[in-house]
Predict the structure.
Amino acid sequence: MTVAEFLRSYRLQFIGVLLSLAVLYSPIVPSMVQWWYQDDNYSHGFIVPLIAGYFLYCRREELLNAKVEPWWPGLLVLLAGLFQLLAGWLAWEYFTMRSSLITVIAGILLFVLGRRPFLILLLPVAYLLFMVPIPYIVYDAFAFPLKMFVTKVSVDFLQSIGVIVMREGNILMFPSTTLEVADACSGIRSIMSLLALSVAYGFFLKVSPLKRLIIALSALPIAIVTNALRVIITGILAQWWGAKAAEGFFHEFAGLAVFGVAIVLLVGLGALLGRERKES
Amino acid sequence: MNQRLIVVSLLLLLVASYLYLHRDMAVAMNRPFSTFPAQLGTWRMSGESFMTETVLDKLRPTDYLSRNYVNQDGKRVTLYIGYHGGGEQSGEIHSPKHCLPGSGWHEIYSGKHRLESDGKAFNMVKSVYQKDDSKELFLYWFQVKGKTLNNEYSLKLAEIVNSLLYKRRDAAFIRISVPFEGDEKEAARLGEAFAKDVCPVIKEYLPG
């Protein structure tokens, strides 16, 4: 029996599973969506399910024609997912609660449809992980050193081109003004969004798995470099214009421009890797 | 009929019904912090501060207290107590381990500490943080159902156990801070002396 036939034969029961899943996650998912809306670091949460849906759409033929071969160990994965949900619920730990949705879906797919359909759906399902905000403990653990690093690199560069600037922690001191490298400029915000994008982009490019991995991971250096660039440009402007350069509209605009540059770099890298492949 | 689909639905609904039935109750304090004494042993309250709306929105304590106390020599300590009663409206305790570095303080050292007061032992964390040139000694601990805990994991564990057994998730965070310039030992002595005076009083306010 193929997945298409399976869905046709057991349509009502399949809808029943979807409804049960919706009921189970109704206390959990809405607060996550609200989080995407409130926290600028997670605005990309909204497009993650859409991209996952598109991945699914791309492989729909393959999926519908795959053979259904139920695999009972999937039940253990499902139980593990439900246990994860309960543990997260009792501990009030959002990441554990929310990410259990992905484990539960994986368990259901393995248990009901089997390994072949599961492998086809692995990417769209795993991709959903990007929509779950990581715990702030983890976030801060990376954000702080990253912020220091970006500040240091930027100040070294500014000094080497003759800008008069001193650094104290993540504070930049110019003769006319002081600037603080905030969390937003540390690159961590861009890393989360860029990683979600670069994985999607890597998937769409017809390149080898290794190159896909390179493209996906390139999000890290790209985010750091572009954010250092942002701090450097702000620093140069601050020397000419004073504090105006780092405030209000310009600051917002710089954030968007930096993200734009990051995407250009990402696409450029993709094009480069893609071209090499054609030549060989 | 596909038995597997039925089994999956039943499992999901079973867990869902547990989630719906298992809600933590909000636990009230014995007395509100507004009645917290202004005189504690030889310590006299010298000021009180209040959090801004933004901070309150983020932290969502059920009740909190943030006061300065001075001793006879005019030495100052700051006391913060945040009580989180559990339930829908209550926020989580934010550990200084994550909060302080986030606001520019970096840890110089941090270790476990035990203090005797009123014939009982209190577990706490003793730590020193620095921001720019100012140093501050912190004594802090978490208090859950009358027990004092000095690490985030035992706090989490206590919360899970209490939620599972008693449907309650109330916990308090207590922090005593002493700003100092050179003499760390003196700061520690002040902090501990204050802790000894305040510990028995705090107990009267928090639910057991």
Remarks:
- Chain A has a mean pLDDT of 86.
- The longest helix of chain A spans residues 248-279.
- The interface with chain B takes residues 6, 9-10, 13-14, 16-17, 19-21, 23-24, 27, 70, 75, 78-79, 82, 85-87, 89-93, 104, 108, 111-112, 136-137, 140, 144, 168-170 of chain A (CB under 8 Å).
